[in-house]
Write a structure and sequence with these properties.
Helix content of chain B: 25-40%
Low-confidence stretches of chain A: none
Mean pLDDT of chain A: 92
CATH architecture of the largest domain in chain A: 3-Layer(aba) Sandwich
Number of strands of chain A: 10
Shape of chain A: globular
Distance between the termini of chain A: 23 Å
Low-confidence stretches of chain B: none
Strand order of the largest sheet of chain B: 6-7-8-3-9-10-12-11
Helix content of chain A: 25-40%
Radius of gyration of chain A: 21 Å
Largest interface: A-B, 42 and 44 residues
Number of domains of chain A: 2
CATH topology of the largest domain in chain A: Rossmann fold
Mean pLDDT of chain B: 92
Order of helices and strands of chain B: EEEHEEHEHHHHEHEHEEHHHEE
CATH class of the largest domain in chain A: Alpha Beta
Oligomer: heterodimer
Number of helices of chain A: 12
Strand content of chain B: 15-25%
Chain lengths: 306, 326
């Protein structure tokens, strides 16, 4: 059994933007898809607006599907190539029986304006292959917004786009999210973009969230040895990098089929102690809004909170 | 002044497609000195990988134009016949590490044989000795010799990429082209690979051409940096000069769009998208997106202006029209 997401807990406030940051195989996408209820969790509970949605069936999930939207990595993969942009944006309105033909037309037009695909009438009759990657991702965002969701999950929404376009899309997402008080989960492997576009950062490793903190806090003082290793590995544009040798942890992330006992980072951790090899560390609240899942910050006999 | 190790002069590589001619590499000029790393940085479709293929003469069949000069130690390798090029240049003088190790390795060959293969083919060295040498190179890139009997699928992505690096080194080339060598890897693995590339560069006195879309990453290796846009090098200068004061409007905007972990600089972006190389804009190819575009930029291709020693910019802001000789 692959334990892709294993005992993860967090809360997301209304209008709050968080980043789930992790390397491939850390379980970040599985967590995102579970939140979207594209997967049904094997254990635990998912509460949305006070309502338990953990095991709702498809019929009872319709309202949730409307409230929670996804923006995926590859816009050309996520937009049906055989539909025009008008049809793509109309589809969610039809499915959720919103408006009549005329008011739908208006909503579609507005949706394109919101993501600044202007003039909208130029884009409406086009097919996805006729526009650029950045434009296609904006169509995907328009589609996610058209139902006025309360939560958007964006899974690596810019990792396939070029540098100059990437920032544009992230700024657009952030602006729309803030103006409409939409809650936002940004799933990414790229810590340096997450800092610009989220209030909090959650670091994932091997199916666990190992550190949670406000963005500025975690940037100022990363605590978990894995978070520190991740920071160390990321270059900023700096001429001194040429002479620098980065300290990297030994080995590679574990297979989730058979993760290490105790703390899952212990085989690579420079500070691993005996207990790290035996017992899973608790989540320790080192300060308000800053928790770290690591024995360095916990008392061995007081781990009750785990 | 010393002769450069490699000199690329007026290099062109155009492809024929059903839609027309793609001008992927369009009059490229640069020098590479011994022991130096030049990064070729640009967005997808700017022609950077085509430039690598043009240097390695690893070309598809649909070539419309492939000309120019590439001197290595004074010898024009463009004038060599394919047979001679294969025998004397490819892998021997210049080798390449591609991105996506999984697709570049033969799944049916053991790692040791795979790394040894260029030696056996190009130098006729017996398998046993070649595999022995492969083992040495594998340990140089941080892979235990015992891995020579493993198959690629038994290795992680980072290890596969290191195998590709070992393979590129086995024929003792002077120049190694690194074509996005870490783009499919996680950041910690990427940092590992960068460490290895730095180590072997000084140990084997290599020169690198580092192709990447990632400016932050390019600073890990570059002595000089060449910014490419739509098939052209628009600015070529030292890493320091580029980071502190890029001159070309595209280079400036591109640098301003790089998110950083440690500084609090404000991000910006470049409106619009790079042009199609099928039908690039007249004049300067960046003019439709350039905040400083003047009349001449729309009409006439800008010359490469030498603003200071070792710093060239292809932009009308730095040129007089009278220089329009370029």
């Amino acid at each position: 059994m692959v334990k892709a997401v294993d005992g993860v807990s967090f809360e997301l406030g209304k209008g709050e933007a968080i980043s789930l940051v992790g390397e491939s195989g850390s379980g970040k996408t599985t967590l995102a898809k579970t939140i979207l209820r594209l997967y049904e969790p094997t254990d635990g509970t998912l509460i949305f607006n006070g309502k338990d949605i953990t095991h709702l069936n498809a019929k009872n999930l319709m309202w949730y599907r409307k409230t929670v939207q996804l923006v995926q990595q590859d816009p050309f993969g996520s937009l049906p190539y055989f539909l025009t942009i008008r049809e793509i944006l109309e589809e969610p309105l039809r499915i959720h029986k919103i408006g009549d033909e005329r008011s739908r037309d208006e909503l579609v037009y507005k949706a394109l304006e919101n993501v600044r695909l202007l003039p909208a009438e130029d884009f409406l009759p086009k097919y996805p292959h006729m526009i650029s990657g950045g434009q296609a991702q904006r169509v995907a965002i328009a589609r996610a917004l058209i139902l006025q969701p309360e939560l958007i999950v964006a899974d690596e929404p810019v990792s396939m786009l070029d540098a100059s376009v990437r920032v544009e899309i992230l700024m657009l997402l952030r602006e729309l999210q803030e103006n409409r008080k939409i809650s936002f989960i940004y799933v990414t492997h790229d810590l340096s973009t997450s800092r610009y576009f989220s209030d909090k950062i959650f670091i994932m490793y091997a199916g666990h969230i190992v550190e949670k903190a406000a963005t500025l806090e975690i940037l100022r003082e990363p605590l978990h040895p894995y978070t520190i290793a991740l920071f160390e590995a990321i270059p900023d544009p700096d001429p001194s990098n040429v002479r620098r040798r980065r300290k990297t942890p030994v080995g590679e992330p574990p297979s989730l089929l058979d993760p290490p006992l105790g703390c899952r980072f212990h085989p690579r951790c420079p500070h691993a102690k005996d207990i790290c090899r035996k017992k899973e560390p608790p989540e320790v609240e080192v300060s308000k809004l800053h928790t770290v899942k690591c024995w360095l910050f916990a008392q061995e006999d007081s781990e009750g909170g785990a | 002044m010393l002769t450069p190790l490699m000199e690329v002069k007026s290099l062109y590589l155009h492809y024929i497609t059903r839609k027309g001619v793609v001008k992927a590499v369009d009059n490229i000029n640069f020098n590479l000195n011994k022991g130096e790393t030049i990064s070729l940085v640009g967005e997808s479709g700017c022609g950077k990988s085509s430039l690598a293929r043009a240097i390695m003469r690893l070309l598809p069949k649909n070539i419309a134009k492939y000309e120019g000069n590439i001197f290595i130690n004074g010898m024009d390798i463009m004038s060599l016949k394919d047979e001679d090029f294969k025998r004397r240049v490819r892998w021997k003088k210049v080798s390449i590490v591609f991105q996506g190790a999984m697709d570049s390795l033969n799944p049916l060959l053991k790692v040791g044989e795979q790394v040894a293969e260029p030696l056996m083919i190009h130098e006729g060295i017996p398998e046993k000795d070649a595999v022995e040498r492969a083992g040495e190179l594998l340990s140089l890139v941080g892979i235990s010799r015992s891995f020579i009997d493993r198959y690629p699928f038994e290795l992680s992505g980072g290890m596969q990429q290191r195998v590709l690096i070992a393979m590129a080194l086995i024929t003792r080339p002077e120049i190694v082209i690194l074509d996005e060598p870490t783009s499919a890897l996680d950041v910690i693995t990427q940092a590992n690979i960068m460490n290895i590339l730095k180590d072997i560069k000084s140990e084997l006195e290599l020169s690198y051409i580092f192709i990447t879309h990632d400016i932050a990453l390019s600073t890990e290796l570059s002595d000089r940096i060449a910014i490419m846009y739509a098939g052209k090098i628009v600015e070529l200068t030292s890493l320091e000069a580029f980071l502190s004061d890029p001159l070309h409007p595209y280079a400036k905007l591109l640098l301003a769009s790089v998110p950083t972990l440690r500084s609090t600089k404000k991000l910006s972006y470049i409106p619009g998208a790079p042009p199609s190389l099928l039908d690039p804009p007249l004049g300067c190819r960046f003019h439709p997106r350039c905040p400083h575009a003047k009349d001449i930029c729309r009409k006439k291709e800008p010359p490469e202006v030498e603003v200071s020693k070792l710093h060239t910019v292809k932009c009308w802001l730095f040129a007089q029209d009278s220089e329009g000789v370029a």
